[in-house]
Write a structure and sequence with these properties.
The complex is a heterodimer of chains A (about 400) and B (about 475). Helices cover about 40% and strands about 10% of the residues of chain A. Chain A has 15 helices and 10 strands. Chain A has helices at about 5-15, 90-100, 120-135, 150-160, 175-180, 185-205, 230-240, 270-285, 290-295, 305-315, 330, 340-350, 355-360, 365-370, 390-395; strands at about 50, 55, 60, 105-110, 140-145, 165, 215-220, 245-250, 320, 375. In chain A, α2 packs across α3 and α4 (about 150-160) packs across α6 (about 185-205). Chain B folds into 4 domains: about 5-120, no CATH class; about 125-190, no CATH class; about 205-255, no CATH class; about 270-480, Uracil-DNA Glycosylase, subunit E (3-Layer(aba) Sandwich), CATH 3.40.470. Chain B is elongated and about 105 Å long. The N and C termini of chain B lie far apart (about 105 Å). Classes of the chains: A alpha/beta (about 400), B alpha/beta (about 475). The structure holds iron/sulfur cluster (SF4).
Chain lengths: ~400, ~475
């Protein structure tokens, strides 16, 4: 691989890394044709992990980091002094194919700074996808970032080549968007999301290919004053209106050459991981935004304990819950019990009466669950009412892992 | 009772185990009377030979678990699995549902460990191109934890069908020659190429996507345990990345916001949003370049007629004739429309005629190409272009011919029978009537004539509406 290309790759990968989405999931299962290259597997594959614990699944790069826009939170904004580079369409195609053949990646995640015009930029990105699919019979994963300011027919086309499309909302409120991303416009972002949502649904019904892995989005957390509760409200809306497959949260992180209107310090990474946990509760555990927020203070989530535990601590009158008798909905609300553990409990208890050691085999969160659970051989009694319960359940930092 | 000894081959001996299970069940030998041994060579002692026995039916879940767990490296795996089978066949059919049962739990953990190893093999194998060969051939060295080669192979075949590749491991090797899969002897690390010209670039990529502000090696190691690192070229960068992370972050924070080095590119900014096609020619060029959504059409068929025509007619999609000639409304339905327009006093050349969908979609039946109706999603795909076309033509009145045109103009499906007559499409005065091909399809002459008369009535109203005073909306006399 020649050195110039290597250098560009470093610049344009570095510029793309603030996008949190890495997943290669959700595409219909495909295999390589004779003469073609690539396949997809349902839940995607992480081919490596970087020392920040993030998964490397797709070749995530920008076509170029030259940009006419001036979004304050972004390294690539036109007023920043970072090094710039631009790939040719063929260079991106070559990198994707050669990396893919060596089993480094599941496919391509292509985004771009805006050069010349949104349409021109989007057309270049489409050209990459088309070449991969048509000239190389590439059947691996393609995620394209959609430029909401581009003409609607380009969005129509993008869905034909991509497995997943995404537009980053970046800022959870319209006012922040106006202040920090002057060229962007909330209305056109929403209308592009709506267009993609409609087309994805129709194509699914008609069994045609249009972004079969759906759409996702990302919000930056901590670059403005928005509370967790408002962030989650926005997420709930995005899930509800546009059937987002995922909303990614990206803790605002200091960037080289950052803008003067941004906070100097990044929010604790824990805030981001609590938001992911809350997001999970929203989607799979039957919680609503206000319930989740009630576990914290003034619209902010409790950073010391996970949001389900935080909610339970403030609603102790609803506990303890009997593992052998409670409804599934209530079991899902027990701290430390994940949805999978709950499903196993519900099936197992048809055949047997569960004891504490049985539950221990089904979840790794027993320590948190214990004070809230009744089993055949265990009752928390007054422990549940102890004033220091919260303190006793705070996780030690080294045991933390995000459950995303 | 004596202990019964079963010897199985080294590795994942699924066949041998199945055979043994059949025989043991037929002999009604409970697990406590059986020991499983693993051997490379067939045993010298004949007494432990199992005979053929009829098939046994075991629950599906158990059979699936067996397939995974025989790959596990634990020598106890067969004994544990036989214990599971025995219980499932002796009164505990639904045993797997009790996930909390100690044996079920243990076997489940083993299956999970095998699946994880499989997944990690799919993820962490790194191919290197073999040197000095003309055709591209790739080889990789990998060290799996369990006996998973056979289980892992199909994934690589599905993905790299068109490449020649070999995966070498201490437990055996897999070869694919673009046609057939074969398994070979264990190999050594030295048998694989020791470098690849893309590794440098890949390592650079890996280093660049790391964000030093989020350093978290524990999370990394949980998903990418150290034992895999040896065979992954990018991991050489890890110590350096971790070491320098905090310095890099400090530097970023200390650095004051700098002044932009370049001036604001005013002209480029002004031009940036001026991207819309300005003429029908520009728009048509975009449509032509995109190509047909459903493959097959000869060419895109564009609208025809003057800008700012009083009336814009929108049909469904070009037909066979239109597709060949590249002009709208020139086939049988188009001819009928032209005739009716003439009778209603509308000059075809003064109207603008176009279709909702710009490419012919058809089913091939022998030599004939039979019109196939575009789906709602297909109509919507073309809709943004139609909207732009409408904006450029700016007619006084836009006429939807048939349900597809209504869907295209309004974005919603509406039956013609209920909505026929005057309509509103966004900013435009509109009218809804049938598509002329509908008139051609009617079975008997009487209904045909009647329908044609109704169509003519519509066209006359359309003519009058298009002549209405744009200010007052007043129609010429005798119109309503
Ligand atoms: S449009 Fe905004 S967020 Fe996107 S690259 Fe340009 S400056 Fe960054």
């Amino acid at each position: 691989m020649d050195e110039k290309l290597s250098r560009k790759l470093r610049i344009l990968a570095d510029a793309a890394k603030y996008d949190a989405s890495c997943s290669s999931s959700g595409a219909p299962k495909r295999k390589a044709d004779v003469g073609g290259l690539g396949s997809t597997v349902g839940s995607g594959i992480c081919h490596a992990y970087t020392p920040d614990g993030r998964c490397v699944s797709l070749l995530k790069i920008l076509l170029t980091n030259y940009c006419l826009f001036d979004c304050a939170y972004c390294v690539n904004r036109r007023s920043s002094n970072v090094k710039r580079a631009k790939f040719s369409v063929d260079e991106v195609v070559t990198l994707t194919v050669e990396f893919y053949k060596r089993n480094y990646i599941e496919g391509l995640f292509l985004s771009s700074g805006i050069i010349r015009s949104p349409d021109y930029t989007m057309e270049q990105m489409l050209l990459v996808a088309k070449k991969l699919r048509r000239d190389h019979g590439f059947r691996g994963y393609i995620h394209l970032k959609t430029i909401p300011e581009a003409s609607p027919w380009l969005i129509e086309e993008a869905g034909l080549w991509a497995d997943r499309l995404s537009i980053n909302l970046e800022l959870p409120t319209e006012t922040s968007l106006e202040r920090l991303a002057p060229e962007k416009d909330g209305a056109s972002i929403e209308s592009a999301m709506a267009q993609m949502f409609e087309r994805i649904e129709e194509a699914r019904e008609e069994r045609r290919h249009f972004s079969p892995a759906g759409q996702t989005t990302q919000m930056i957390v901590g670059a403005d004053e928005t509370t967790d509760q408002d962030v989650l409200r926005t997420s709930a809306k995005l899930y509800g209106h546009y059937d987002m497959k995922r909303v990614y949260y990206s803790a605002f992180s200091p960037i080289p050459d950052s803008s003067a209107i941004l906070p100097l310090k990044s929010p604790p990474l824990m805030r981001e991981s609590r938001l992911y946990q809350a997001d999970w509760l929203l989607r799979y555990y039957g919680f609503n935004v206000d319930e989740i927020a009630s576990g914290g203070e003034q619209g902010m989530l409790d950073l010391d304990v996970d949001p389900k535990l935080a909610w339970a601590l403030k609603n102790r009158h609803l506990f303890p819950v009997d593992v052998n008798r409670a409804e599934r909905e209530m079991l899902l609300r027990v701290p430390g019990l994940g949805a999978r553990a709950v499903d196993k409990i519900v099936v197992a208890r048809k055949h047997t009466t569960l004891r504490l050691e049985d539950v221990a085999r089904l979840t790794s969160g027993l320590k948190r669950a214990r004070p809230f659970l009744i089993t055949a051989d265990h009752h928390p009694k007054a422990k549940l009412d102890r004033l220091d319960l919260r303190e006793r359940l705070i996780e030690k930092p080294e045991q933390l892992s995000m459950f995303v | 009772m004596t202990l019964h000894r079963i010897t199985l081959k080294c590795g994942a001996d699924l066949q041998g185990f199945r055979r043994a299970v059949r025989w043991l069940i037929a002999e009604e030998l409970a697990p406590q009377h059986v020991v499983f041994a693993i051997d490379d060579a067939p045993s010298l002692f004949g007494n432990e030979q199992t005979g053929d026995a009829p098939a046994v039916t075991i629950p599906k879940g158990v059979a699936q678990l067996i397939e995974h767990v025989v790959c596990h490296c634990d020598p106890e795996r067969y004994a544990l699995l036989y214990g599971l089978v025995w219980r499932a066949l002796n009164g505990e059919r639904d045993l797997l549902e009790v996930a909390s049962d100690p044996l079920v739990h243990r076997i489940d953990m083993m299956a999970r460990s095998v699946r994880r190893d499989l997944h990690k093999m799919h993820a962490f194998v790194r191919f290197r191109r073999m040197k000095g060969e003309e055709v591209e051939r790739f080889a990789a060295w990998f060290e799996p934890e369990h006996f998973i080669l056979a289980a892992a192979a199909p994934f690589f075949v599905d993905r790299f069908r068109s490449l020649d590749w070999t995966i070498l491991t201490p437990l055996g090797s897999i070869h694919w020659n673009r046609e057939a899969l074969s398994f070979g002897l264990p190999a050594r690390r030295e048998d694989a190429p020791d470098e690849d010209s893309f590794e440098e670039g890949w390592r650079g990529y890996y280093e660049s996507v790391f964000n030093p502000a989020r350093v978290n090696p524990t999370a990394m190691r949980a998903e990418m345990p150290k034992k895999y690192w040896r065979n992954m070229p990018e991991t050489a960068a890890i110590p350096g990345l971790i070491q320098t992370a905090s310095q890099r972050v400090e530097r970023m924070i200390e650095q004051e916001a700098s002044m932009p080095a370049k001036r604001t590119p005013e002209r480029a900014l002004e031009a940036m949003f001026d991207q819309d096609p300005k003429s029908l020619e520009e728009l048509n060029a975009i449509i032509a370049k995109a190509g047909p959504l459903v493959p097959g059409a000869t060419q895109a068929v564009f609208g025809e007629g003057p800008l700012h025509a009083d009336i814009m007619f929108v049909g469904e999609q070009p037909g066979d004739q239109e597709d060949l000639q590249g002009r709208p409304f020139v086939g049988p339905a188009g001819k009928l429309l032209t005739k009716a327009m003439g009778e209603a006093g509308i000059v075809r050349e003064q109207a603008y005629l176009t279709n909702a969908v710009k490419h012919f979609k058809f089913d091939q039946r022998g030599h004939r190409r039979i019109h196939a109706k575009p789906t709602a999603g297909e109509v919507k795909h073309y809709r943004p272009w139609l909207m732009k076309e409408l904006e450029l033509v700016k007619p006084k009145l836009v006429v939807a011919l048939g349900a597809t045109a209504v869907l295209a103009l309004s974005g919603k499906a509406t039956p013609i029978t209920r909505s026929r007559g005057r309509a509103r499409f966004g900013d435009y005065e509109g009218y809804i009537t049938v598509h002329p091909s509908y008139l051609l399809r009617l079975p008997d002459e009487a209904t045909k004539r009647e329908a044609y008369e109704a169509f003519l009535t519509d066209l006359r109203r359309i003519r009058d509406l298009a002549q209405a005073d744009p200010e007052t909306g007043e129609l010429p006399l005798a119109a309503e």
